[in-house]
Amino acid sequence: MDTQYGWLLNLICYLPLAGALLIIFFIKKENTGAVKLAAVSIAAIDFVLSLPLWFLYRTDGAEFQFATQMEWIPSVGAQYLFGVDGFAILLILLTTLLGFISVYSSFTAITDREKEYYVFLLMLQTGMMGVFCALDFVLFYVFWEVMLVPMYFLIGVWGGPRKLYAAIKFFLYTLVGSVLMLVGILALYFFNAGGLKAIGLPGLGNDPTFSIPHLYTIAPQVPPELQFWIFLAFFVGFAIKVPMFPFHTWLPDAHVEAPTAGSVILAGVLLKMGTYGFVRLSLPLLPDATVKAVPWVGLLSIIAIVYGALVAMAQKDMKKLVAYSSVSHMGFITIGIFALNDPGLRGAILQMLNHGVSTGALFLLVGIVYERRHNRLIAEYGGIAKVMPIYATFFLIITMSSIGLPTLNGFIGEFLILIGAFNHSWVWALFAASGIVLGAAYMLWLYQRVFFGELSNEKNKDLKDLNLREQWTIIPLIVLAFWIGLYPKPFFDRMQPTVDNVMKRVSVAMPEADLGFSYGGESETDHAENPQTKHGE
Amino acid sequence: MSLADFVPFLPEIFLAVAGLAVLLLGIPMGSRGSRPIIAISIGALAATAVLIFLVGRPTAGPQLILGDMLVIDQFAVFFKVLVLIASALALLMASGYLDRAGYSSGEFAALILFADLGMFVMVSGANLASLYVGLELMALSVYVLVGYFKLEVKSNEGAVKYFVLGAASSAVLLYGISLIYGTTGSLDLETIRSSLTGVPHQNVLLMLGIVLVAFGMLFKVAAVPFHVWTPDAYEGAPTPVTAFISVAPKAVAFAMFLRLFAGTFASEVDHWWMLLWIASAATMIYGNVAALTQDNVKRMLAYSSIAHAGYALMGLVAASDNGTWAVLMYMGVYTFMNLGAFGFVILLESKGYAGERIEDFAGLARRHPAAAAGMLIFMLGLAGIPPTAGFMGKLYLWAATVEAGYVVLAVISVIMSAVSLYYYFRIVVQMYLKDGEAEGEAAPQMLNDRWTGTAIAVCAVLTLVIGLWPAPLVGWAKSGLSALGF
Fold first, then answer.
1. Number of structural domains, chain B?
2. Could you tell me the pTM of the whole model?
3. How far, in Å, CA of A478 to CA of A39, rounded?
4. I need a labelling partner for A471 at 20 to 30 A (CA). Which of A323, A422, A514, B447 fits?
5. Model confidence pLDDT, tens digit, residues A205-232
6. In this predicted complex, what is the ipTM?
7. Which of A17, A23, A142 would you mutate first to test chain B, the one with the most B CBs within 10 A?
8. Of A138, A167, A199, the CB nearest to B405
9. CB B398 to CB A186 under 8 A?
10. What is the pLDDT of residues B175-217, one digit of tens each?
11. Residue B71 belongs to what domain range?
């Protein structure tokens, strides 16, 4: 663990919270201008502060960098342990960027109780960042649950007509998942220490600790049966968050009712918590159970991909369509992770970013027309391209990014995931590929119905095109989409140590032949972009 | 027994004298409102705390006093301090409340002090007889407190129900004690313990005795199926009394429970764990599910406090060191969260029984943002969501339960805490998501009562601070452990 610049990580994590407190205590709620200014500057400063992580992270350095280690609850072995690797840094950057964008995009959308709104938005950001930084299970869990509270209020106060139902459903679903996860954490904790008495399982007798890096080292010793149960507990927690079929039913409600910024954060960052959990915790901590679970998780992912896409196609409401497309895209990410090979995992991690960028942008774009028309039904629109050319262009680019057109970000991620899935089994690849086709179908059909054809609806005739502020909420995401699509190497460089570590830890439980096959497949397909993978072999 | 034996007993003696003094002072000072009397009583509680620090704490290991009737140990000190804090906070909340309702404060404060005395004896009892005496002194004071609003029908009803059922449960407890005495030949906890260890016991009468004692204790902590008195007593009692009896008597009942079952009867764990397992699961399930449909906040909090007894029982079922200190910890955090929540009910109780309907919280976030934020903290705490103390309390209970291998019980409690979130958040929904002005009638105003406000603020700060930095309380709760082995 490398503690250099540890303060920076803490600063990035807690700055939004400090800003929220500042707004609570020093700005009157009538003074909405000052509230907005304060919120957006805090979010912007936070984003700028997080940029050095990108440059300071050393791919050849310690696994976890920017670390902080302090005592917290010594008598049970919980520490204040912060630290990030390349994977977490990418997600933190995504969080700070989307955090800034969601604050900036809310200026006109939110006209009621602004002060509370920005306070909750900033608190949420600290909660999300804490999840990516925490390397101690108790700390991780605290942040994991803390972020539910502001999200509940964002949906519940500023949401759509069924906001109360959607908010409590979101909260309860994710809460049940996460407390079950906690039981799994405790089982692992006691296995490391004194054992579980009543079921006669002796522990390893180590000092009790919740430190995730320490628990990595004991992972191979956890008996398979215990791994199975812990994996199940973790799986429920993460699968609800992702959300995987059949735990996805909270997602359309929450997405549709949430205000635009809430949907952006929800799709962009909150859903990534589940996949982050799989990569950071399930795979390396429970290798044996992971390998055994592969067919089942694969099956659920395939169902999510196909089912999500088909349901998305049938939607009449734009936001609901995007919400179901998330189910399908997240299925891609889980299938990439559980292919358990290098290209699959790299593709999955990249696709987490891609999904944050493109789905976040889609929600922003849908939110923009909703703000103008207060209507999201696809049938209400048509021929919008004539009155809103800039909007139509942006929407087109993001649509292409979402369906995986080469030169844009989605392509790279989906391609790698397909390779990974194919290396595992051609059936997986077949279904995953069908998901891409379906994805293209519903997105292009949506685009066609909204933007082309006759401008038949009177109400749409004088729709205003994007103003400068709205353009600048989308442009960063478009730039990112092109960057990842054209030159993803810096992203792969940063995630490579994580991928190698996870693969090393999970391969303990993999039969040799399987391992050789997946790595063999990778070297053919990896277009010399990544010298490190080769050298890792 | 020498005079020196009485020195560690000085806090209790002082409490008794202070109780009598307050009772007498109440007569001449009654006309000047409740504040002076309450202030004097809180001063007496503080002086008791100082006395505990000076003479009433163990210097070198547990110390038996007064003919082995009482024991002075860290375990007792933990609960004594908790009781003192809870009483002081309840008195702060009661001051303005009694003035508004037009009842005198002298007897009220005296009864609280006498109840405290009973609880002190209860938590440090080393003999079944002294435990029982302490329990009854506490219970009798509390019965009267519940019926303190003598002109309110609800208050009387609650008191009578509580008294009748409480008396019956005391009889059951006493019968259990007599059976234990009959089979072991002693009332002394240490003697009973050593006569139980190492000898295989198939004595049916002894088992029956232990089971009956367990029933009596389950009544005192308001566990299912001995909970029926709770909602009525809690709803009928004056709200500061409800706040008080939902925390302090429950905490000391758990102290006695632990001393008996984690200490004295520990070797018989194979015989009683199943009973407590079922009681714990049933209490969590029933308390939480019944609370879902309550529209009266006091009643809802009553059911929620039943549910919390179920969580704490998990620590007893675990029957381990970790389980024991987890209960101590949980009682510590629960006290502050629950007192704080009741404090808000008091503040909203401006007209008659207002503040008791959930709708009375409507729009609170707009009119009193700080108050709404405080209530939010308590609701999150009671539901066990970090970063509040409630989470830290539950974490250790779950840990102990998982360690002991009762994973099913842990999973039940986990699901039930999610259920509890739903009804706690009904209040949050009212505060933050409802307007409160479109309801037709004028929204109940929040009282501006500094004393109650202070008590609530203390609870809120502690709930947050313990949630973020639990190490000191954890250390303190753990220090109470050594006591149980005597």
1. 1
2. 0.90
3. 23
4. A323
5. 778 889 898 888 888 888 888 889 999 9
6. 0.89
7. A142
8. A199
9. yes
10. 999 999 988 888 988 888 888 876 666 788 888 999 999 999 9
11. 3-485
